[in-house]
TrEMBL record:
Transmembrane segments: none
Cited InterPro entries: HNH, HNH_nuc, NA-targeting_endonuclease
Keywords in alphabetical order: Endonuclease, Hydrolase, Nuclease
Entry's Gene Ontology molecular function annotations: endonuclease activity
Protein name stated in the entry: HNH endonuclease
Location of the HNH nuclease domain: 9-62
Species whose genome carries this gene: Actinomycetospora atypica
Length: 127
């Protein structure tokens, strides 16, 4: 199966998620430029799959660096932004499912599992 290219994946992420930054919720447009952010960072073994990619503004993507998704989510909240917690939870679930189906990604798995546990705990406490 042909894998879509980077620009196609970013467009697909927009279609899936809506054209806002996951982290600060700003609409992505000519002024707030969309970049591809890896939910599980590449340095943690995160794959270049649509399931691991979200649209984020350049500011957030740069400020996050290699931080884990939940650490960065909490930092966004401290900064007074409104990150989309439910979108993040959905993306992490879909990524876990994609890894289950396709296999591999041994390095990313434990990191992904830890992020999902932390997020589930947060959502439990909020319920
Ligand atoms: Zn942002």
């Amino acid at each position: 199966m042909r894998q879509p290219g980077r620009a196609e994946r970013l467009a697909a992420a927009h279609t899936r998620d809506g054209a806002t930054c996951l982290w600060c919720a700003r609409p992505l447009d000519d002024r707030v430029v969309a970049t591809t952010d890896h939910v599980i960072p590449r340095v943690q073994g995160g794959p270049s799959w649509l399931e691991n990619e979200v649209a984020a503004c350049r500011r957030c993507n740069g400020a996050r660096g290699h931080r884990g998704a939940v650490d960065w989510l909490e930092e966004c909240e401290r900064r007074g932004w409104t990150p989309d917690v439910e979108r993040l939870a959905r993306v992490l679930d879909d990524l876990a499912e994609a890894i289950r189906v396709r296999g591999g990604q041994r390095r990313a798995r434990p990191h992904l599992d830890a992020q999902r546990r932390r997020l589930a705990k947060r959502l439990d406490e909020a319920a």
